[in-house]
Amino acid sequence: MTASESDGKAQIGVTGLAVMGSNIARNFARHGYTVALHNRSVAKTEALLADHGDEGTFVRTETIAQFLAALQRPRRVLIMVKAGAATDAVIEELAAAMEPGDIIIDGGNALYTDTMRREKALAARGLHFVGAGISGGEEGALHGPSIMPGGPAESYASLGPLLEEISAHVDGVPCCTHIGPDGSGHFVKMVHNGIEYADMQLIGEAYHLLRDALGLSAPEIADVFAEWNTGELDSYLVEITAEVLRQVDAATGEPLVDVIADAAEQKGTGLWTVKSALDLGVPVTGIAEAVFARALSGAEAQRRAGVGLAAGTLGAAPTDVAGFTEDVRRALYASKIVAYAQGFNQIQAGSAEYGWQIAPGDLATIWRGGCIIRATFLNRIKEAFDADPDLVSLLAAPYFREAVTAAIESWRRVVITATGLGIPVPGFASALAYHDGLRTERLPAALTQAQRDYFGAHTYGRIDKPGKFHTLWSGDRSEVPV
Ligand code: NBP
């Protein structure tokens, strides 16, 4: 539908006009849509109209009744309020006044299980509910985010064209597609954020190594990241890392990064990703290490207590600056491949658990632009899933297999050097351990199974015959089939 088909009423309504909502409303308006505006307190609506009212056609409303009356039927309302109780409150207010067939879209960072609950409740009232993950921060919201809508296919038929139009585009392809039913959109957005945590942690470790193993300054490291951004690591996060490292603090004249307190905060989507991965039994070690590394950085009392703990004297700083820098680049790339492989495994597991039929290749496509983890590398992921939609691990795809083969020695050197020097690299080291775990023919899990059978009669399988077995540990130690 285009604005010219409008009957004077708005094609879309946005309620919740803080930074994200107002920018998405402007994005719709800039694309020619008539946008009904609503916010709990009218001040934000007024501010948007005063500052950007000339960017398109907006309909100012103060009450939910006015807001709904301003919309074409079936109504399409995008909620952009704080996730949690506020979202439930707004949904309830809207649903009470809406009619069957109307569509409520939650574009906030909702927990996917909340979205599943809301979708079910609203479907019972004849309303369509679409949980849409939106990534890209405020800039993305305005200029084109990556959008991950779940919900009924029928809603997407009506809503999809609008969302695709305002999303980012890469090679003419929108960074928006229907993910699957109910909570799938928010689930995928959650894992996207988890991968973002892992990516940022790995970049942080690369920076730490260049700073403390090589003694490079922030501007020197900025140059390294800018150079890396021209190759296979080309990505939004690497690009902004270079910019951030170049920033000088006006008050002290020092690099800004050197005067920022080193305690990382988190809003919760990384934690949700790890909790969900634990429930699904998927090892997302890269994301978990990233969440825990942020927690450690903020553990003030423990860090104070840790000052002066033993360092050891095994390490010698690398003398080949260019060589070690290249090693770090390769270790970063290989670790990043692991983090994405794990994240995609979680999405496949979630999809199987809930029957969502998510196409992983589609995600690689819509994450190429607009979102925080956008990267050239996602084209390679898309190609891998195009070649094999049921790919069980990205690490097994030919391109990534070769990339890791090219990186493996550098990766090991970096972990060895970091360990020798006492520089923590939980992301690099756990990614390498995961890789080694996957390729190890005989894992020590056989011993774990024997121990479990010893103390709990939990039984074990054998490599030479089918079935389950138990050894009579407290008897004659003969083996019995179970
Ligand atoms: P906030 O998450 O800061 O939420 C502020 C908005 O929620 C305001 O419009 C506020 O209305 C409204 N609100 C609250 Br708080 N409680 C309400 C209630 N009980 N009833 C009605 N409205 C209520 O805004 P944001 O940073 O723009 O984010 C919006 C959503 O998008 C969030 O879910 C967020 O997680 C998600 N998100 C944010 C980003 C980002 O980069 N910031 C990126 C991706 C997704 P008021 O003006 O009357 O107080």
Automatic annotation (TrEMBL):
Under what name is this protein listed? Answer: 6-phosphogluconate dehydrogenase, decarboxylating
Q: What is the lineage of its organism?
A: Bacteria, Bacillati, Actinomycetota, Actinomycetes, Mycobacteriales
Kindly state which reaction or reactions the protein catalyses.
Answer: 6-phospho-D-gluconate + NADP(+) = D-ribulose 5-phosphate + CO2 + NADPH
- Cross-referenced InterPro entries, in alphabetical order? 6-PGluconate_DH-like_C_sf, 6PGD_dom2, 6PGDH_C, 6PGDH_Gnd/GntZ, 6PGDH_NADP-bd, 6PGdom_BS, NAD(P)-bd_dom_sf, Pgluconate_DH
Family statement drawn from the similarity comment of this UniProt entry: Belongs to the 6-phosphogluconate dehydrogenase family.
EC number of the protein = 1.1.1.44
The record's keywords, sorted A to Z, are: Gluconate utilization, NADP, Oxidoreductase, Pentose shunt
* Subunit composition and interactions: Homodimer.
Q: Which of the seven top EC classes does this enzyme belong to?
A: oxidoreductase
What Pfam families does UniProt report for this protein, alphabetically? 6PGD (PF00393), NAD_binding_2 (PF03446)
* Any one GO molecular function term: phosphogluconate dehydrogenase (decarboxylating) activity
Q: In which pathway does it act?
A: Carbohydrate degradation; pentose phosphate pathway; D-ribulose 5-phosphate from D-glucose 6-phosphate (oxidative stage): step 3/3
Which residue range or ranges hold the 6-phosphogluconate dehydrogenase C-terminal domain?
A: 185-474
The cellular component terms of Gene Ontology attached to this UniProt record, alphabetical and capped at eight, are: ribosome
In the UniProt record, the gene name given for this protein reads: gndA
At the top level of its lineage, which domain of life is listed? Bacteria
